[in-house]
Specification:
By secondary structure, the protein is mostly helical. The protein is built from twelve helices and no strands. It has one domain.
Length: 275
Amino acid sequence: MTEDENQTMDRETMPFVAPCRIISPLAPFKWLRLGVGDLKRAPRESLMYGLIMAAIIAAVAVGAWTYGTHWLMIAMLCGFVFLAPLTCIGLYAISAQLERGQPVSLARSLRAAFNRHLGNEMVFALALLVIFLVWARAGAVMSVFLPSEANPDLDELYAYLSIGSIVGAIFAAVTFSASAFSLPMIMHRDVDTITAIVTSVNAVLRNKLAMMVWLTIIMIGLLVGLLTGFVGLVVILPIIGFGAWHGYLETIDADEFPRHSVGITSIPRESPPLR
């Protein structure tokens, strides 16, 4: 039987979704610790990646403030939540190199992130873009709750802010559920985008408390990064990205899915990930 036939049979017998493990609500703090460990093992590459991402976020915010309004800047920063998962995939590649005892290369990480898996990433980006556009449209509809007065006080803005927060939280929860483990899985195994997204949603729903803790950690980290004039993001983004990778390895059992034929994750780790 040829290699192509074997590959076809493997794909036909693969499960629709990768099984997940039930994890402790405190597990995200372990992921955070492992993320800090990866940062210490590859500080130059990690901080350079963080600097690039932080500069992009800062440029978007400054541009929105300069050529729009402070409301536009806030909207752009909120919208970044929907696209942020894509910015971390290069960090997964750095962690994967560390696990395999390979010399860490930022160029190789970027190539693995934005070239080798580009097809699946574009499908994932399209899905997130649709969610973002629906969220933006919902935000426009929420304007009907804005008071007609020129300078409304907080009491008059209560309905608008309350409903807007609820709607935004729903869209953020959908995005988080779809992206928490999907991109790490695409980096780790040769799977399609739909399988990765369904796997991620299933794992989040089965580990609600732990994932709420992880989401809270992410939101606090991003808030600290913004309050430090985006400087803190240079360190925070790599730690979150590395932590997400370790969270995926602990939560998702993807052994039934084939490895990539080439690239960083085409070979097994030298040893199980640190716990």
